[in-house]
Write a structure and sequence with these properties.
GO terms for molecular function: 3'-5'-RNA exonuclease activity; nucleic acid binding. This is Exonuclease. InterPro entries: 3-5_Exoribonuclease, ERI-1_3'hExo-like, Ribonucl_H, RNaseH-like_sf, RNaseH_sf. Keywords: Exonuclease, Hydrolase, Nuclease. By secondary structure, this protein is an alpha/beta fold. It has a single domain, classed as Ribonuclease H-like superfamily/Ribonuclease H (Nucleotidyltransferase, domain 5, 2-Layer Sandwich). It contains 8 helices and 5 strands, in the order E-E-E-H-H-H-E-H-E-H-H-H-H. It has helices spanning about 60-65, 70, 75-90, 100-110, 125-135, 145-150, 160-175, 210-215; strands spanning about 5-10, 25-35, 35-45, 95, 125. It has a 5-stranded mixed beta sheet with strand order 3-2-1-4-5. Helix 5 (about 125-135) packs across helix 7.
Amino acid sequence: MPTYIIFDLEFMVVRKHQHLADIIEIGAIKMTEQEGTLVMTDVFQSYVKPSRQYKLTPETTPFTGITQDQVDQAPSFPEALKAFQEWIGEAPYYLCAWGMDDKYQFIQHCRYHQISLDWLQNYNDLQLAFTRLHQSDHRQRIGLKRALDLLQLPFIGEPHRATDDAYNTAKVFLSIFPNIQLVTNNAAEDQLYVSEMVYSTGSEENHPFSKLAEMLGMAQ
């Protein structure tokens, strides 16, 4: 039986979007089927020491709650990724996250550190899957907070903390699992992957990046 890895990444907040933001936290929930029921079986969390800009930007801690001391004592990205891969284990697995940006960030960080992408396989965008189930216009994606509201589920924990976001994403995954078809793929075989992070301008209060947009002076 496959394992389902529901994960989330947190990044350093940067103003210049052409610069890759360092991953500073990896959080994940492991789910497996037991007696025909999908259950959460394990949790992974690791802070990550930035690779390019060692000092956190002033916006990062207010947005994520992650402190300079936490990343200073954290493993490097290659070390944290190795621990994550070992935690995933040897069984066949699907990697699932809310949106496509976490996949893009993993690809860019692995390329920067010259790490094989073979492990980045069977990635599924749960935000797209949920949006397709709940509205006809797939271009306007549903944010995680709104998805939970539609399912009448509370957000547990703190937003923009990797493990908490992964846990709440896993709750959404659990609710839609019977109604979606997961895809198989491998990032090592993908063509050049391009993703653009779009920040809310305040029109969607449930957009996961609306708070960040406000902090950066982008809200109208």
